[in-house]
Amino acid sequence: MRTNHRHRLAVSATTVFLGVSVALGSGLATPAFADSTTVSAVILGVGANEAQRIVTWYSTVDVAQQVQVAPTATLGANGEFPADAVTFAATGAANIATSGGFNRHSTITGLRENTSYSYRVGSAGDWSTVYAFSTQDFEGDYDFLFYGDPQIGASGNVAKDQAGWTDTLDVSLTANPKAELLVSGGDQVETANTESQWNAFLASDKLRQYPWAATIGNHDVGGKAYEQHLYTPNTDRSTAYYADGKGTATSGGDYWYVYKDTLFIDLNSNSYATSQGGGGDAAHVAYVTDVINKHGSEAKWTVLVYHHSIYSAASHAKDADNKVRRVDFPATFSKLSVDLVLQGHDHVYTRSYLIKNGAKANPDEQPGQSEVFAGPGGVLYVTANSASGSKYYDITTPDSSGTSGAGNGADPLKPEDYWYNSVQNQEHVRSYVKVQVRNDKLVVEDVRSGTCAAPNASVELGLSCSNDAATKGVGTVVDKVTVHPYHGDNQDIQVNVPALAPGEFGWTIDGQNGLVDLGTAAQQKDAFFLSADGKINPIKVTDSRRTLSPWALSASVGDFADAAKSFSGAYLGWSPYLVTKGAGATAGSAVASGYDNGGKGLSESAVLGSAAQGHARGSAVLGADLGLKFPDSVDKGNYRTTLTITALSS
């Protein structure tokens, strides 16, 4: 776009100068603000897509509140928000928890890619601290981090659990500052409605800088605090997705979102049997099927997340409820071409073999194999270990119950492990899972975020630890696997379209932009006026913008002047036309000289040419026949004026 450039050409006798300006600009003001004494528990959550975030918080007062957002670059020198900062109204209700107070949440929409934003919550005069987050490209490769069971309070020492959880967030995000999502494996806290545990879970500002994709665990489900603290997008809170089939005093719901090329579906696995009162696994299977049928085409990858691991190796591996899910889920997940399932609950790290319809997909896949090829229906299941160190479960021994379906038999290739697990690990050290989402592969790795040393609450409180910090220190990899997707019996062809420049809108004056000379005005026989004719120098408009936004070139003139002598520019009119078609251009309407109709002629802005939204990209050349008609009472002279053309576009 051409800005702040002015071209002048002259016409004589009258003579006309032509110029241009482009209308742009906005004004910013900066109101003062103060930290709030009424707002707490602020957390940034994932939205329905890349351009959204959900912010949730608590308030001690029941007043209308909002979240206010602005690009960080527009804040004042002292952090003042600009006058045009966007606000989003918050909704919420009184807390059904021991804390009292009120919960609030608000969805930020319309975010731009590759932009740093600042935000605050509350109300005018009672704002929270200002926090910040950044968006990245809305297309292409990205990384997300998956965290198992912080379960703050599980060790019996909230402060130690908080220290370990905060350290894992610091370690993982220092190593992966460009990670785009933080995905939960469930069990944020030990006791559902204990706000001191929630406060410890939320203590790190990393949870206000990176979007948290919440998952409900069995320790979160027993009250409403989970729903109050962690509002989620596209959430179906039908009673079928609550364990008790009611949800009046418990948390629940299933939800989904699409982030870049990934469809994420998150389930409340606490509801697994209809005897509890809810819809059980059948309801979840129907939900997953419906979401994938409706939205699977929007993504290349499908990732499911729920708390209760059906392919784990520790204390919960043989739980009756997990055996039920192990029968109910896998065939559907294989049929729907799910790529990855992320789980928690068992406080141990496991990576399954590729599983198809509840059995090992490829009998020849080896333990710990670093590259796997999904084949039709092959699904990878991953269980995350504790991210806080509040609780670990030791690996248990397989039995003789079988090597498919609900069985917990031994792996023929590695008898000490369960038949379904390619990797099992328990060192009693904190870890997190990093997932790299790439064009044609998923890379999944379990990374140590701690050692036997503090902060590691369970070990500090007496649990043994087998980690060797010299060779298996912070940042070292426990396990890494690359998953290649199945492409069927045909050949898929892919092309990557790089980020393109947005294109430009601008204009140039065709030729040398010489004086537009209307010559010597002629008096008409038996008339009381003079007239002169001519043409403007053609103007070339070029629009290569991908937005295909509308544009218009308009023009107006001032009075014709020769020293102290003058006459009105209203006497000049024109008839625009297209010299060369293109860029969706249409010529403006003719404007008559004001001499004939007492009008304002070109002293009032008139359209030379324009194009509508969605027009073709390209160039057009605009011209106009000029017609000047003025009274014979005008004194002799060599008069000039300037025709200013203003280019406007959204």
Describe the structure.
Keywords: Signal. One of its GO terms (molecular function) is metal ion binding. Residues 172-349 form the Calcineurin-like phosphoesterase domain. Residues 42-135 form the Purple acid phosphatase N-terminal domain. This protein is mainly beta. The protein has two domains: 139-484, Purple Acid Phosphatase, chain A, domain 2; 505-649, Immunoglobulin-like. The protein is 11% helix and 34% strand. The chain is built from nine helices and 41 strands. Helix 1 (158-175) runs parallel beside helix 2. The protein is elongated.
List the helices and strands and how they pair.
Layout: E1 15-22, E2 39-46, E3 53-59, E4 66-71, E5 86-89, E6 91-94, E7 102-108, E8 116-123, E9 126-127, E10 131-134, E11 142-147, H1 158-175, E12 181-184, H2 195-201, H3 206-209, E13 212-213, H4 225-229, E14 255-259, E15 262-266, H5 280-295, E16 301-308, H6 320-328, H7 330-335, E17 340-344, E18 349-352, E19 355-356, E20 359-360, E21 371-373, E22 380-383, E23 410-411, E24 414-418, E25 421-425, E26 431-438, E27 441-448, H8 457-460, E28 477-484, E29 505-509, E30 516-517, E31 522-523, E32 529-535, E33 539-543, E34 551-557, E35 560-562, E36 565-567, E37 572-580, E38 586-587, H9 594-597, E39 606-611, E40 618-631, E41 640-649
Parallel strand pairs: 1-41, 11-12, 12-13, 15-16, 16-17, 17-22, 21-28
Antiparallel strand pairs: 1-30, 2-3, 3-7, 4-5, 4-8, 6-7, 8-9, 8-10, 11-26, 14-15, 18-22, 18-25, 19-20, 23-24, 26-27, 27-28, 29-33, 31-32, 32-40, 33-40, 34-39, 34-41, 35-36, 37-40, 38-39
Helix pairs in contact: 1-2
